[in-house]
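Budget justification aside, the reviewers requested a transparent look at the raw inputs and outputs of the sequence design task funded under Objective 1. We therefore reproduce one unedited record. The lines immediately below are the structure tokens for a 333-residue chain.
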């Protein structure tokens, strides 16, 4: 097993997730953090479970709005029922992806349909040319799978070593699920134009970036790899291990996150909140039909600083979110 090494900030860093709550379910939130806000267009990374649920602890997220993003839900264990204001009603099962494009506005609800649950719920920031476009919903029941050095790989989005996911994206992206039940080792060739994040979901995983050991990562940690890296070696020493590899070129536009919105200015956020809170029919976000509970209301918009880009993209602080907004207990995906 690789020995621990001191971080090299120019090449990689390890970030600790913080705990949150979505619909009564405890989650680990790896992005955004104060040290890093994005990995490519990935701007929000939640890992929920694995958890055993009872009727009292079932996940129930009432209707709530989104703008300027795509919600990307990857189901590992259990089932969730998705409803949205387009009239979509879809059960998400293990090995499947739900992709909801908010564009200028959409609303949705989510309810667990099983007594066990584990999933990754991620946000993808939309570029300016698409973020005011029409909303959409797509369900992907089957994704490419292939072996990789003892790991079983599922390609969630993007292309890798001759495989291509059917899930579309509006900026270059990579998303891959890597799972092993026993000792496994794989070396992945990276795109030097991309930055990457390795989000450990289960077990323990050692990694080396360009043959430099990064030590051991565990659930609740995100290993960030800066652009320029050529290779990533992943080693699982045994037992069950699961991780997500996420990547993309540094996002070229300033991004502001607050509550369930992705935008560019505080004025935009205030207008979104007023539209949702002030209209029983949801206004531009529409209505979710079939959910037997109240919708979630937007909180008071706090002072928000318009983000600026760091040199070369988002970097460590190139995007911004309000303190305790996207990361608050009231947030929903």
């Amino acid at each position: 097993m690789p020995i621990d090494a001191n971080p090299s900030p120019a090449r990689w860093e390890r970030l600790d997730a913080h705990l949150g709550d979505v619909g009564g379910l405890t989650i680990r939130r790896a992005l955004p953090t104060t040290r890093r806000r994005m990995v490519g267009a990935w701007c929000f990374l939640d890992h929920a479970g694995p958890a055993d649920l009872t009727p009292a602890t079932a996940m129930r997220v009432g209707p709530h709005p989104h703008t300027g993003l795509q919600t990307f839900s990857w189901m590992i264990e259990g089932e969730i029922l998705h409803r949205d204001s387009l009239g979509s009603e879809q059960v998400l099962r293990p090995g499947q992806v739900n992709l909801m494009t908010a564009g200028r506005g959409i609303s949705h609800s989510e309810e667990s349909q099983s007594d066990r649950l584990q999933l990754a719920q991620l946000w993808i920031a939309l570029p300016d040319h698409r973020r005011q476009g029409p909303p959409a919903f797509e369900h992907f029941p089957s994704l490419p799978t292939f072996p990789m050095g003892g790991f079983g790989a599922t390609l969630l989005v993007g292309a890798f070593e001759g495989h291509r996911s059917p899930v579309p994206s509006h900026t270059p992206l990579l998303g891959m699920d890597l799972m092993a039940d026993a000792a496994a080792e794989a070396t992945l060739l990276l795109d030097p134009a991309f930055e990457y994040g390795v989000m450990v979901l289960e077990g323990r995983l050692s990694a080396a970036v360009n043959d430099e050991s990064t030590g051991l990562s565990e659930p609740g940690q995100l290993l960030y790899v800066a652009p320029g890296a050529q290779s990533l070696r992943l080693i699982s020493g045994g037992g069950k291990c699961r991780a997500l590899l996420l990547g993309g070129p540094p996002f070229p536009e300033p991004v502001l996150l607050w509550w369930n919105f992705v935008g560019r200015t505080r004025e935009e956020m205030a207008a979104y909140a007023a539209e949702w809170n002030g209209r029983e029919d949801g206004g531009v976000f529409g209505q979710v039909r079939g959910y037997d509970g109240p919708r979630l209301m937007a909180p008071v918009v706090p002072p928000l600083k318009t983000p600026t880009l760091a040199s070369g993209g988002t970097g460590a602080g190139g995007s911004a979110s309000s303190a305790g907004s996207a990361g608050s207990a009231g947030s929903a995906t």
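The CA atoms of residues 63 and 109 lie 4 Å apart. The chain has two helices and 27 strands. Computational costs for records of this kind are itemized in the attached budget.
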